Amino acid sequence: MSDPINAQFRPRIFSGIQPSGGLTLGNYLGALKRFAALQGGEAETIYCIVDLHAITVWQEPEQLRARIREAAAAFMAAGVDPAQSILFNQSQVSAHAEMAWLFNTVARVGWMYRMTQFKDKAGKNSENASLGLLAYPALMAADILTYQATAVPVGEDQKQHLELTRDIAAKFNHDYGVTHFPITEPLIEGVATRVMSLRDGSRKMSKSDPSDASRINLTDDADTIATKIRKARTDADPLPGSMEGLKDRPEAKNLVNIYAALADETPDEVLARFEGQGFGAFKPALAEVAVSALSPITARMSDYMADPAQIDRTLADGADRAAAIALPILERTKEIMGLLRTRN
Ligand code: TYM
User: Fold this and answer.
1) Which member of 99, 157, 164, 196 lies 3.0 to 4.6 Å from 254 by CB, making a disulfide possible if both were Cys?
2) pTM for this prediction
């Protein structure tokens, strides 16, 4: 249920992806595919390549530049249309960094230490993590609230960060006695909100997993996709007729969910067709579905990548349009906090 306060804001969808590695099938199904589907509805759609988040861990500068462009190509190849949505990279709109600073004064240190993503990424030697890695969720709240976004489509792993965004909005509104920020709704929907590793059904498919066989990259060719699916870890049992029967079979469940998400079917519809069959039959069928869904995206991505100057123009145009929305909201935020306005 949406917070009643949100009715006061115009419907606006915001989401972001880090350019910290090649994008995966998890990013596609959990995020990009849904970003494209949300276009053209009543809500304005704003999509961002969050390069300032990426640099909270070390990035080789040349590689980062290439990955920002590659991420832009992936957004467009997956169907995000810069004419229908605003598509840009975060560092070009300085309002994000400024708003993040304001939120650093609203958020509490204890909130940040509780974030499981910080604990995972900082590891044992958390004293040595960058300060930015700790403050990461305040920047994420800034991304969202600088546009007063009412809804954010993400995968399951971002749920805790979105709860923190809501906490920051609520504390700001409460402390200053205003209804300046919406209490943003997470949109975590569909069967692919948590695509798991192909090697270990208890771990998320991730661009940072050391094993390339654990994931399908959006740049993998048809043979690589088929090989990775063929080698995916499974069990020896035949498939049941419904998802109920896959409760304790995480690897099998993951492959069925991937199939369903790629084919726009429900997992039960998929199982109704494969009931009683083993993975010897299911895996080649999944490979076929995956290749036919992903190959056109990979091809379009490389077409976009062939013209980096055009990508840069698209991102610059998106940044101008994003800044036009963000700046008045940033200025009003400063004013509420007692700072002097920088623009009239
Ligand atoms: P990031 O870059 O890790 O992932 C981008 C999006 O892909 C989703 N995702 C997955 N979904 C399903 N299965 C998976 N295995 C999988 N792996 C990744 C993520 O949930 C996410 O939706 N902190 C964010 C980026 C961010 C952001 C924002 C998101 C910064 N500011 C504002 C939304 C709004 C992140 O690291 O996502």
Assistant:
1) 196
2) 0.97
